[in-house]
Design a protein that fits this description.
Layout (H helix, E strand, L loop, with lengths): L1 H29 L4 H13 L2 H26 L7 H18 L5 H29 L4 H21 L33 H18 L1 H11 L1 H6 L4 H28 L10 H11 L4 H25 L4 H29 L1
Membrane topology: Multi-pass membrane protein
Organism: Faecalimonas umbilicata
Protein name: ABC transporter permease
Length: 345
């Protein structure tokens, strides 16, 4: 039964991708573009060379972390729309830690910085979980407000007290090349952050399958009333759920700093936290599925520039494709929900 469900979800996702590509192709034809030329350019931009493929994988990394963050929270029945704020908190905390530890051994700096980034993201996530259970405040409202608070706070820090002297943009000083993550392919932005992200997906898969805490989180997510009646502590589970979810989002920001930028730059995220929601939805919150889902979004992102200057099609078409994918994946669930509501009434 479970294998049939997994297969059904996989076919649903593949169908959603195919339908979105076909509709996007129709839109291109209507406005006078050649969809075959566009998709050929997109594929070439994503896979056309070793460096292109490395760029695709590199763009998938933050989406892997934020997708896992959203999926983890969803497993516990909480919608984490606060990934953007959590990744900014993680990026700033890890940067400050690295700057304070200048001169220390490389491994120690990276380890402490990653811990700081995860802790910062976890603290933000835990606030959302505690507010939901203790104060009965909707997590979406709290998460959105925290997104603004954290982004503006980090913007203030990098614009004033920690701004690099003489820099035209709001950014900190460089953390140092010695503390950057090791590149998997020279002269690209693909680093060992990819291995960390894949390891995180595998660990989460086994966490939900094999651990008591994972069972508690799934139980609360599937039936809150039954879980409460069974004696599962709601407050502890909610804080743990959102704490781990926030830590994963914090890693997205940390790996951007240590894998690509080498410093904190104001407004560095193009919306990784929100795209992570789409990644999780397409993968149906399955940790292993998120690996493929994040790769798909990485392909679209990496290939969009090539599609733009080779086929003359705006990169916004990629956003159209992403939106259509989510629409087709979400529609069956919406229909089932409407039918269930009608049945109850």
């Amino acid at each position: 039964m479970k294998q049939k469900t997994v297969l059904h979800n996989l076919l649903l996702s593949l169908g959603a991708i195919l339908c979105s590509l076909l509709i996007a192709a129709g839109v291109m034809l209507l406005v006078g573009y050649d969809p075959l030329e566009a998709y050929s350019a997109l594929i070439e931009g994503a896979f056309g060379s070793k460096n292109a493929f490395a760029n695709t994988l590199s763009k998938s990394i933050p989406l892997l972390f934020t997708g896992l963050a959203v999926a983890f929270a969803n497993k516990g029945g909480i919608f984490n729309i606060g990934g953007e704020g959590q990744l900014y908190a993680g990026a700033m905390a890890s940067t400050v830690t690295a700057l304070m530890m200048q001169g220390a051994p490389r491994f120690l700096v990276i380890f402490c910085s990653f811990c700081a980034g995860m802790l910062a993201g976890a603290c933000v996530g835990a606030i959302i979980g505690a507010a939901k259970i203790k104060l009965q405040v909707n997590e979406v409202v709290v998460a959105i407000m925290l997104n603004y608070i954290i982004q503006y706070f980090t913007s203030y820090i990098v614009t004033y007290p920690l701004k690099q002297e003489g820099a035209m943009t709001a950014q900190t000083v460089d953390i140092g090349a010695n503390y950057m993550l090791t590149k998997l392919i020279p002269k690209t932005q693909l680093t060992t952050a990819l291995l960390v992200a894949v390891a995180a997906a595998i660990l989460l898969f086994f966490f939900f399958k094999k651990t008591r805490a994972g069972y508690h989180i799934r139980a609360v997510g599937e039936n809150k009333s039954a879980a409460q009646a069974a004696g599962i502590p709601m407050m502890t589970t909610a804080i743990l759920t959102m704490g781990i979810s926030g830590a994963l989002a914090g890693l997205a920001g940390t790996t951007e700093v240590f894998g690509k930028m080498g410093r904190f730059i104001d407004g560095f995220s193009p919306g990784f936290g929100f795209t992570g929601i789409a990644v999780a939805v397409l993968a149906n919150n399955h940790p292993m599925g998120i690996l493929l889902s994040a790769l798909l979004f990485g392909i679209l992102e990496a290939g969009s520039m090539k599609m733009s200057y080779s086929a003359g099609i705006s990169t916004s078409m990629v956003n159209v494709i992403q939106g259509l994918v989510i629409l087709f994946v979400a529609t069956p669930n919406i229909i089932r929900l409407i039918k269930r509501k009608k049945g109850e009434s």
